[in-house]
Amino acid sequence: MLTQKIHQATRAVIDLSAIVHNLGLVRKLVGRKVEICAAVKADAYGHGIEQVSRILRAAGTGWLGVDSTWEGKRLREAGIEGPILVLGPTPPRESPLIVAQGLSQVITSLEVAEALSQEARQQGREVGIHLKVDSGMGRLGIKPEEALAFCENLRKLPGLHFEGLMTHFALAHSKEKSFTIRQLEAFRETSRVLEARGFHFSLHHAANSAAIIDLPEAHLDMVRPGIMIYGHFPSSEVSSHLPLRPALTLRTEIGHLKSLQPGESVSYGRLFVASRQTQVAILPVGYADGYDRRLSNRAQVLVQGRRAPVIGIICMDMTAVDVTDIPGVKAGDEVILLGCQGKEEISAEQIATWLDTISYEVLTRIGSRVERVYLSGEE
Ligand SMILES: *Cc1c(COP(=O)(O)O)cnc(C)c1O
Fold this sequence. Notes:
alpha/beta, TIM Barrel, ten-stranded mixed β-sheet, 20 strands
């Protein structure tokens, strides 16, 4: 029997103490009285939903935000108790799962509310609901002018517990906050109208990471941090004085080394042709691991604390880098695709810039076959 754990060459190393540190920064910004609902959807932004949720709960996070019934189910099956909010639009047929697992559901349609009510009665339980107001995101939610009539209908449905009233910002990550302030005002007005008619919600919530950092008046009763928990800023326009610590490092190692003569080429399509004697390192990582093919001939990686360019087309399972200018490189040397090595860093934001996307997409696309390894901070 094997007693020693053998790790995959390509793995995401997740520092859970960084997640706890970032959660502490959120707590400092919002104060003691505001609840925190940490977004752990999309496998905790690629960091692993079970492990991250467990550490967040242990560090005092009251709520966890998931996208779907299925993510909620994964948490319950991992033995994670307490409030979980399903943020996405759940189809009525999934109501039995929502109720049985004690998940709370964001409500944006009467049909879903009716299905949940019926199921709650059948199972002899209550289901927590958070009514979503569309104050300008234009995605999910009830329009402010329709909220009162909607609530009158909800009131007729037994088994629903009015836990939350919420909205979501479309532009909080931009420097210009006037649209976000208008959204917040529309939400506040809706909330006043509903209160006046006797609809009480214990948790009013609106703020994502950007609003947590830049718009304290949006903190309300609960905040919903996502990207900042993982150590990244929502955009380059959000104030960046907060000492967030990125939790994830994507590393691999050199699988094979070879020498190219001038005129010889690398990989499919011969996109890279050597103009000098070139030392090439082949890495066991490719687009199937989420190392995007559009990084071909564009990205850099870190080897021995120095930058080395990706050359040629990135394959499904392999990537080539030029290590000619880094002396003494050998097979098995650690290679950082995302993260720090020595004094150098390849940030998620840097990769996002190469890909013309955002750090969120870079992190959530790290493939499921990439092993996740957790550091608890003591190691
Ligand atoms: C994902 C999500 C968040 C978190 O957003 P970040 O920008 O990652 O902080 C907050 N609220 C809702 C409704 C979400 O879906």
